[in-house]
Amino acid sequence: MIDLDDLEGSISELYKLYHLEVYKFLICFCANQIDAEDLTQEVFIRILNNLSSYNQQSSIKTWIFSIAKHAAIDHHRKKKFVTFFKEGFFKNIESEAKQPDEWLEEQDIKRAVHDAISRLKPHFRAVVILRGINECSIKETSEILQCSESKVKVSYHRALKELRRKLNVEGEEALRNAK
To answer: Which of 12, 62, 66, 103 is most buried by a 10 A CB count?
Structure first.
């Protein structure tokens, strides 16, 4: 898939395959559409700059998401956000099929879920975003977060338990409402 003689073609192919997933991950991390777009661009610039050092032993997807995770953390450190999730982006999602009162109720639920996720420990937050929202496998999540698969399982379980406590609902239902 990676042809170092044709970097432009390789980057184009990687962008086509993964840009939406990377963007989705970053929008959840920073809750700002403009920042997520900029960070997505930054991720693919980093990929271009480091493509020659890509270790073929891990999957390209986990390598890309690892870069995205580091870009998000770097961005967080630079901006020193108080919280990752703010109302901005999620408040503007509209559904024409729903009645206004249903839409408002759904927005309140989403806001509560995202607020609860934003109050989780950073590791729990990352696991919930990767496993629950982006639907990454346990193996992919462990490679992205650079921890064991058992730590991912335990962290995800504990994060869902914490979300249930914060929201007084079942964790899987909370994640369905977060999407």
So the answer is: 62
